[in-house]
Amino acid sequence: MDILDIHSHLLPKVDDSHQSRLFYGRMMRSYAESGITGIVFTPHLDNPYVHTHRSMIQKTFEWATEKAEKEGLQTFLGSEYYVREQEKIDLIPLFGKYALCETFTDFMPKTYLDVLRRVRDRGYEIIIAHIERYRWLRPDDEVMRVLKEELGALIQVNAKGSMTREGKKYLSLGLVDFLASDNHGDRELAGLLVQQLGKYPEVAMKMCDFFAQEIE
Ligand SMILES: [Fe+2]
Q: What does pTM read for this prediction?
């Protein structure tokens, strides 16, 4: 049975990850020991607050994969795409087709839904990253209806976010498809993710079904 962390920033010196190459092996061990079987690396793309060394992504991913495999972990490359007012959609999809999308936490950009529609029209399926962080969004409002019903978006909550009032609200309504770490370099987070999945077995089940479909 596969349990993957689908949202992480653990490629050293690629984006705002705190993860050093020196302690990367220990990070991978913390994942393996927690029972997680794989990691999707999702460096930020188009994030106005983070500089990502895009040309370093592939090479660093190859380096990171070699080390992760020593701990028995599968690795995958994706990205966390910042939705704002961009014309061009340029992202690295998870499992070849999923666009993990974030945006501003304080306000919804006017173009938010238009850009997401273009992401979908490019053939990507949308995963909304850490939905609990968006202060402008409520589980019962119209934007949420558009995300779920019109765009068919899947919803991700952070492991730490699942312990907050906002995260619990989305979870209690059955709106959540994934818990993930959004790990920038904290060795406690793999264990916390597994612990929180234990508290939300319906989400763990959804994730298992998803991974069974997506991973050979
Ligand atoms: Fe993230």
A: 0.97
